[in-house]
Design a protein that fits this description.
The chain is an alpha/beta fold. It contains 11 helices and 12 strands. A 7-stranded parallel beta sheet has the order 5-6-7-8-9-10-11. Helix 3 crosses helix 11, helix 4 packs across helix 5 and helix 6 packs across helix 7. Pfam families: Enolase_like_N, MR_MLE_C. Keywords: Metal-binding.
């Protein structure tokens, strides 16, 4: 282990900036923090190493892994989710396995696409990252379809298109590939999504992701006439309980997805998916297949993953003391905003 100074010692030295009495949380939870670095199999939206902080509480392990560029205010729901996961039991589960989709990064080499597809055994749905180059996007989708001709295809744009570009590109994709299950976040703003939904002439449903989780208050976002499907991610939305409340509030069909998390975070997403009585879409909870190392095993069997708590194994994955301190400082800055 690289850590020279325990998290508890660091917390004690930083006590002046914290007020632990404002929420039901103890310094013992933060003292269990471990930080790991998980290498990816390929570049995934600029990420080659996924850093993750973990806490152990009375209910198990919780994951705190906002992306490195996020500011402390953006990290608040991620920390709230980690605290909930570590300290609260999962809600009632209605199934012990969850059907998942495969996720294909923006790869252009056919052999690389084939290798990634092979890591999703029995999966009947693939979400393909698109948005940078239309001809490359179509070729990527065509390659996935050739490898799994019976699988459903959905695409994820991450909000990078204008309305006009979305109309042009979605028409071209539909004409070349045929049926697309849905397009996730084709445009950035709710106003653009609403305009696109009005003007789009091809039958491709729209799913919303960033429009919800990156809003100042996801309960106040008016999604009527803008999207058809709500994408829920546990950490960015503040935990399982809050994700449920958002689903009830917006009253749309849902799909559960992940944020390239470790096995601990994925397990929490699986619990969210299993806690809904009805799920109509395969869930984006198989992103562990994009990592070349992990702290736990959640194998895909016939397109499904078992819902279970993870007892992490940290051997060889913990970060340097410098990176640990960086995460500790990040935790403190985020905690100050909560406490």
């Amino acid at each position: 282990m690289h850590i020279k100074k325990s998290a508890l010692q660091i917390l004690e030295s930083s006590q002046s900036v914290l007020n632990f009495g404002k929420i039901n949380m103890s310094q013992e939870l933060f003292s269990t923090m471990r930080v790991i670095a998980l290498p990816t199999k390929t570049n995934f939206r600029g990420i080659n190493i996924r850093e993750v902080a973990l806490f152990q509480g009375e209910a198990g392990w919780g994951e705190f892994s906002p992306f490195l560029e996020y500011q402390p205010s953006e990290c608040i729901p991620w920390l709230q989710s980690a605290i909930e996961s570590a300290t609260k039991p999962w809600p009632e589960l209605h199934r012990n396995k969850v059907k998942v989709n495969g996720t294909i990064p923006a790869l252009n080499t056919p052999s690389a696409i084939e290798r990634i597809v092979e890591t999703f055994p029995g999966v009947n749905t693939f979400k393909v990252k698109v948005g940078d180059n239309l001809s490359e996007d179509i070729a990527r989708l065509a390659k996935v379809r050739s490898l799994r001709p019976k699988a459903k295809l959905r695409i994820d744009v991450n909000g990078s298109w204008s309305v006009a570009t979305a109309i042009t590109n979605l028409r071209a994709i539909y004409e070349n590939l045929g049926e697309i299950e849905y397009v996730e976040q084709p445009c950035q703003s709710v106003e653009e999504l609403r305009e696109l939904k009005t003007k789009l002439k091809v039958n491709i449903p729209i799913a919303g992701d960033e429009v919800l989780r990156k809003s100042a208050d996801p309960f106040q976002v008016d999604l009527e006439g803008a999207i058809d499907i709500l994408a829920l991610k546990v950490q960015p939305l503040g935990g399982i309980v809050r994700a449920h409340k958002l689903a009830e509030h917006h009253n749309l069909p849902i799909v559960i997805s992940s944020a390239l998390e470790s096995a601990v975070g994925i397990a929490n997403g699986l619990a969210l998916a299993a806690s809904f009585k009805e799920i109509n879409f395969d869930c984006g909870l198989a992103t562990g297949s994009l990592l070349s190392a992990n702290i736990g095993d959640l194998p895909i069997v016939d397109g499904e993953i078992e819902v279970k708590r993870i007892e992490p194994k940290f051997d060889g994955l913990e970060v340097s003391p410098e990176r640990y301190k960086w995460w500790q400082d990040r935790l403190m800055k985020t905690w100050e905003l909560i406490a």
